[in-house]
Amino acid sequence: CSRPQKVCLCPFLPIHPLKVSTCLYIIQHPAEESRVLRTVPLLAACLPPDKCKILVGRRFSEDRYPELATVCRNPNTLILYPGAEATNLEEVAVMPSSPSVMIIIDGTWSQAKDIFYKNSLFRLPKQVQLKTNISSQYVIRTQPTNTCLSTLECAAVALTIMEKNKSIQETILRPLQALCSFQLQHGAQIHHSKEHLLKNGLYDKPMPKNKRKLRRMELLVNNVKI
């Protein structure tokens, strides 16, 4: 896990990489590389190297990333990105020919949105989303809403659905739970979502002057899906 021994997460990782048929392509925003408490390295440690490929960048052209372009054009590829055009993954997973590749964008919501809409390759695969009401266990990082999940959690839920194996989710979430536990023991605080803070009058930062951002906060308070 490459962490100091007293907070080592290796005992919480699977002894052997999980056997899965689905290959994940993690498209990681460069800003995520510098974050100390990121979840993608834990995800990669749970899976075989050929089943979890990480590409770092903001722009992905067909010329520079021919392998990714081929993957995006494959009819068995999905991209996990919620929205009006997205199909619930549970509906896709029951089809006779199950998808074999999933693309997940790793970054803040604004970073992920920028990557998704400014790279035409990512509009080629079938767009899917998770229909789940589970709350994030990544409690040491602030999420926009109560049901927003980290990249590792999204991958864990998605793989469980696609592989039809509930133990996958438990195995992948174990190191994340240990990470949060260690950080809380060493002085970290539980981070409630922006949605929770706004609804309970606990948001102590200046309200944004940008009208678009202010409108998004109003939608969070009023339970409007964004």
From TrEMBL:
Keywords: S-adenosyl-L-methionine, Transferase, tRNA processing. It comes from the Eukaryota. InterPro entries: DTW, DTWD2/TAPT. The keyword Cytoplasm does not apply. The keyword Transmembrane does not apply. One of its GO terms (biological process) is tRNA processing. SMART domains: DTW. It catalyses: a uridine in tRNA + S-adenosyl-L-methionine = a 3-[(3S)-3-amino-3-carboxypropyl]uridine in tRNA + S-methyl-5'-thioadenosine + H(+). Its EC number is 2.5.1.25. GO terms for molecular function: tRNA-uridine aminocarboxypropyltransferase activity. Belongs to the TDD superfamily. DTWD2 family. PANTHER family: TRNA-URIDINE AMINOCARBOXYPROPYLTRANSFERASE 2. This is tRNA-uridine aminocarboxypropyltransferase.
